[in-house]
């Protein structure tokens, strides 16, 4: 009888060499929210052992509708701690490092991108996204960026393209402009071609960020974006 392990079914798809590769790489996920949480979940279940998780948010009540780490028992806990605990429960042999901070130009020096085999951008701000891309490009480390998933309802509208090929998405438009200003090329992104939906709820009932209403969101759009990103990371790491 062939010896089986928790990754046997994935190995049947990818092969032993690919699984050995995934076991050896280190992936950094910046932002452990609606998108980043699903990226981390899918990567560890796919056989990635070494992960860096970067976020400074706590699990909030308004995260319960869409974030895989958000339950009533985790409310108030740091997202990176909850995600690490979940990862270790899935794979006790995983090597997870947590960074309890937001990635910003001021904190970027904390991270050596030369040690990463792949970087996932699942943060919210344009400033942080641009800095992540610049730092990844300087290190020669592959990066994939999530564009806007808020105010969207159609999980079938996602595409994986270069940032220059995006359309419709307001965040992608700003990112295109900022990348063009800096001469940044060849940036893989996951974005939705769905036109943003106008929120129907009362602003006072919505989570606030930086004094502005947070976008409306649902369970099945950010999660799909995260799973698409994870699939791209796995594909790139095992076919390079």
The side-by-side strand order for the widest beta sheet comes to 3-2-1-4-5-7-6
Largest sheet: number of strands, sense, barrel closure:
7 strands, mixed
Supply the helix-strand structural class.
Answer: alpha/beta
- For the record, what CATH class applies? Alpha Beta
Return Rg in Å. 18 Å
Fraction of residues in β-strands: 15-25%
Categorize the overall geometry.
globular
What is the CA-CA span between the terminal residues? 32 Å
Tell me the CATH architecture. 3-Layer(aba) Sandwich
Based on the model shown, name its key terms:
single chain, 240 residues, alpha/beta, 7-stranded mixed sheet, two-stranded antiparallel ribbon, 9 strands, 15% strand
Description:
- The mean pLDDT is 95.
- α1 crosses α2.
- The protein has 240 residues and is α/β, with parallel strands linked by helices.
- The longest helix has 18 residues, at 222-239.
- β8 and β9 form a beta hairpin.
- The chain contains seven helices and nine strands, in the order ααβαβαββαββαβββα.
- Helix content is 35%, strand content 15%.
- It is globular and about 55 Å long.
- The strands form two sheets. Strands 3-2-1-4-5-7-6 form a seven-stranded mixed sheet, with helices on both faces. The chain has a two-stranded antiparallel sheet with strand order 8-9.
- The chain has one domain: 3-Layer(aba) Sandwich (Rossmann fold).
- The protein has helices at residues 8-14, 16-24, 36-46, 79-90, 126-139, 170-182, 222-239, and strands spanning 26-30, 50-54, 95-99, 118-121, 143-146, 158-162, 188-192, 208-209, 212-213.
């Amino acid at each position: 009888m062939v010896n089986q392990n928790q990754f046997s079914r994935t190995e049947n798809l990818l092969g032993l060499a690919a699984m050995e590769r995934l076991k050896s790489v280190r992936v950094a996920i910046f932002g452990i929210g609606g998108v980043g949480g699903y990226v981390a979940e899918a990567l560890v279940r796919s056989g990635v052992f070494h992960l860096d998780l970067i976020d400074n948010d706590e699990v909030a009540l308004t995260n319960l509708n869409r974030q895989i780490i958000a339950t009533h028992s985790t409310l108030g806990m740091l997202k990176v701690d909850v995600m690490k605990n979940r990862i270790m429960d899935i794979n006790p042999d995983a090597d997870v490092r947590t960074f309890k901070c937001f990635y910003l130009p001021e904190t970027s020096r904390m991270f050596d991108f030369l040690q990463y085999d792949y970087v996932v951008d699942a943060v919210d701000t344009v400033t942080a996204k641009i800095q992540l891309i610049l730092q990844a490009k300087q290190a020669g480390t592959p990066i994939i960026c999530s564009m806007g998933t808020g105010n969207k309802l159609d999980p079938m509208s996602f595409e994986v393209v270069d940032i220059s090929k995006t359309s419709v998405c307001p965040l992608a438009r700003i990112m295109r402009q900022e990348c063009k200003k800096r001469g940044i090329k060849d940036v893989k992104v996951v974005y939705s071609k769905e036109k943003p939906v106008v929120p129907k709820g009362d602003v006072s009932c919505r989570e606030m960020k930086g004094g502005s209403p947070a976008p409306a969101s649902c369970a099945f759009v950010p999660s799909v974006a995260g799973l698409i990103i994870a699939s791209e990371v796995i594909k790139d790491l095992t076919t390079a």
